[in-house]
Amino acid sequence: xxxxxxxxxxxxxxxxxxxxxxxxxxxxxxxxxxxxxxxxxxxxxxxxxxxxxxxxxxxxxxxxxxxxxxxxxxxxxxxxxxxxxxxxxxxxxxxxxxxxxxxxxxxxxxxxxxxxxxxxxxxxxxxxxxxxxxxxxxxxxxxxxxxxxxxxxxxxxxxxxxxxxxxxxxxxxxxxxxxxxxxxxxxxxxxxxxxxxxxxxxxxxxxxxxxxxxxxxxxxxxxxxxxxxxxxxxxxxxxxxxxxxxxxxxxxxxxxxxxxxxxxxxxxxxxxxxxxxxxxxxxxxxxxxxxxxxxxxxxxxxxxxxx
Length: 307
Fold this sequence. Notes:
This protein has ten helices and eleven strands. By secondary structure, it is α/β, with parallel strands linked by helices. Strand 6 (about 160-165), helix 8 and strand 7 (about 190-200) form a beta-alpha-beta unit.
């Protein structure tokens, strides 16, 4: 049950993809003074050493955050995100630690906002408790995410997001996650739900996407996939997917503009691509994935608030 260790994968290209989409959703929530709550149901330990231990041995971070760390020219939002990660380093000039999603969310909370983090693993939960410290805006639950999907919704305030990013070590999780999102939506019809999923050669991700669509008919859903090979071939993680249910206004455009230069940096040989699909309210048929081409506009635009 506790065999997965994210320490080996912290800061890799999938973490970068996931956290940049999360960052843009937080931008939408922060555009208004109304308070929000962020619920991180698979929170992890909140921070990961890159210069020692499992991450140093795997080296995956070098082809993820390591390829972005020294960028001199980058879109404004990417610069802000990188500056936030620099601010969490013991020495801002050196990349030695990568923050997990609860640490990134905590950094962006205002006085009126809240973080609810769930982590069942005893070791990761203990580390996360130390990361969040005595922050009265942050609440840590050592509980199973499936239980949390029933017990913690609807949250107060009602405005906010929920992040589900399991390890998918068990095949059953591909079926469990859409059921969890349906359970959350039944209790919380206003929230934004983010789901991360891996792209592997065995190809279970299309079934997960289809299950999300069938359980959330009529919702606006964004699918963003950063692929390092197309189609996925070979051992290990070949791509990263994010689904955003109840998509904030213009998020599809902002994700496209931010992630295109990021993908170009993470996949210098262009073996994969950045792909996107959007299910729109009252639209007929299933959304079709479109490859985002480098000649598409990458200009940053203003962010509208999300109620």
